[in-house]
Write a sequence for this structure.
């Protein structure tokens, strides 16, 4: 049972944190604006993308403000009238009837979603905020104890057996 729990924790850690090592950013879908493409509570894994290679129909994750990140579909690429090196995107959520109110500047594009895991976002959000953080830390500590305590008892048993064997060997050598 302990092995299964440890494996589950390791897999969860890789899905939430380990993927960052290979260049993904992980976000939780909090609204239904992209239903049915991305369901509420899903985790989306976003990879960097060159904004100048994006076209209409692509899905992007972008910063709406310093605190708000959104994932919507590009419905139009809008070149800047003054500076040709600047591009903006008109976006719209798949479940929304109207386009978003403002254009997305290419510098606000974080990347493009590569894959998603339904429902895992609920777990991620829970453990990122108290009391979920405290529960996750406690569960991790308990798992560590469950993994290492049997080894400690085994070491003590091995020491007792070695001591007994040594005693038996010395008694045997004394009788000879």
């Amino acid at each position: 049972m302990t092995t299964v729990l440890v494996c589950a924790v390791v897999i969860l850690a890789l899905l939430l944190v380990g993927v960052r090592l290979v260049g993904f950013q992980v976000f939780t879908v909090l609204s239904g604006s992209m239903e049915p493409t991305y369901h509420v509570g899903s985790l989306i894994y976003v990879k960097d993308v060159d904004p100048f290679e994006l076209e209409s129909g692509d899905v992007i994750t972008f910063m709406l403000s310093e605190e708000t990140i959104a994932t919507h579909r590009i419905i139009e690429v809008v070149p800047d009238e003054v500076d040709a090196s600047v591009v903006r995107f008109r976006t719209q959520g798949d479940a929304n009837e109207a386009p978003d109110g403002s254009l997305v500047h290419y510098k606000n594009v974080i990347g493009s979603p590569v894959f998603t895991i339904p429902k895992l976002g609920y777990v991620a959000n829970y453990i990122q905020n108290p009391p979920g953080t405290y529960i996750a830390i406690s569960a991790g500590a308990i798992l560590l104890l469950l993994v290492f305590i049997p080894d400690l008892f085994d070491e003590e048993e091995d020491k007792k057996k070695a001591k007994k064997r040594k005693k038996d060997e010395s008694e045997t050598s004394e009788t000879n």
